[in-house]
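Archive maintenance. Older records in this collection stored only the sequence; we are now back-filling the structure field for every entry so that each record is complete. The fields below show one back-filled record exactly as it appears after the update. Entries are processed alphabetically, and Aminoglycoside (3'') (9) adenylyltransferase is next in the queue.

ARCHIVE ENTRY
Title: Aminoglycoside (3'') (9) adenylyltransferase
Organism field: Escherichia coli
Length field: 175
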Amino acid sequence: MGGLKPYSDIDLLVTVAVKLDETTRRALLNDLMEASAFPGESETLRAIEVTLVVHDDIIPWRYPAKRELQFGEWQRNDILAGIFEPAMIDIDLAILLTKAREHSVALVGPAAEEFFDPVPEQDLFEALRETLKLWNSQPDWAGDERNVVLTLSRIWYSAITGKIAPKLMSLPTGQ
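Back-filled structure field:
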């Protein structure tokens, strides 16, 4: 979706058949730390974001859906401290699966548009509304202003078009 920018992460959506046990969860997160680096900190590694879902938790589709595991560079310090996020309900899966069905490349298995059920528009819009609630006051966005503005522009674009766009493509031209 728009090409890989210098500070973009590589998004991977993984579907598995069974839930992860705690030992596997910890080992996988530790291994992902070795394969990823914060943007600009490595000449050989890119930041990766991995979202792992269990097939039966998202097929058939229901909102809100459950995420089995997520890894991203924002979690690095917690993982190093031995804090491992458990499986949880994740409203963002409505957005992520819509994006995957519209713009993705399957590395293994069928294309996302064939594999995943369509996310109803009402679920997508509810996820967008819930995302807006993340930023109620200045401390909620402090230090992450760029990403918040880009995300807000994507929400606006999606609300108008019903489609998902890369952050920079959703900004009005000339901005």
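Update note: The CA atoms of residues 37 and 44 lie 9 Å apart. Residues 10-170 form one domain.
Entry marked complete.
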